[in-house]
Design brief:
Strand order of the largest sheet: 3-2-1-4-5-6
Shape: globular
Structural class: alpha+beta
Number of domains: 1
Helix content: 10-25%
Radius of gyration: 15 Å
Distance between the termini: 30 Å
Strand content: 35-45%
Number of helices: 2
Order of helices and strands: EEHHEEEE
Length: 128
């Protein structure tokens, strides 16, 4: 089964007004050599050391890095306008930190309409 995740690049630890949102359909878990942290943290550290700041450039190069790393030329990775309602992990990247959240969902029935409520739990805050 796929472990979906999204990576938000933003000036602050927030999903509001993101610079970019990257969707990854598989291997979205944080741990292990195939997980997100192992594959993007060295890139983020190198980018910061070589480029300094520039979150828009970071977003573009991070997407390129992930596509190349996972050899996903046509599927499984993309850009989004908003958060999906079925991701297991959310990563938020700022100038200084990589935040790792575990997502969970509950069904709410309000006036006969089913709504999904997302909740996040901060697992880790990693300095870049």
């Amino acid at each position: 089964m796929s472990t979906r995740c999204q990576i938000v690049i933003n000036e602050e630890c927030s999903i509001k007004n993101p610079i970019a949102i990257i969707y990854k359909h598989h291997d979205g878990y944080p741990e292990s050599e195939h997980g997100i942290i192992h594959n993007i943290l060295p890139f983020l550290q190198n980018f910061k050391r070589e480029r300094g700041n520039g979150l828009e450039h970071l977003a573009a190069r991070l997407l390129q890095h992930i596509v190349n790393k996972y050899n996903a030329q046509y599927t499984g990775i993309g850009l989004c306008r908003e958060l999906h309602g079925d991701i297991e992990y959310l990563y938020i990247i700022t100038d200084k930190y990589l935040y790792v959240y575990k997502m969970s969902y509950t069904d709410n029935v309000d006036s006969g309409k089913k709504k999904i409520k997302a909740q996040s739990t901060l697992l880790e805050k990693i300095e870049i």
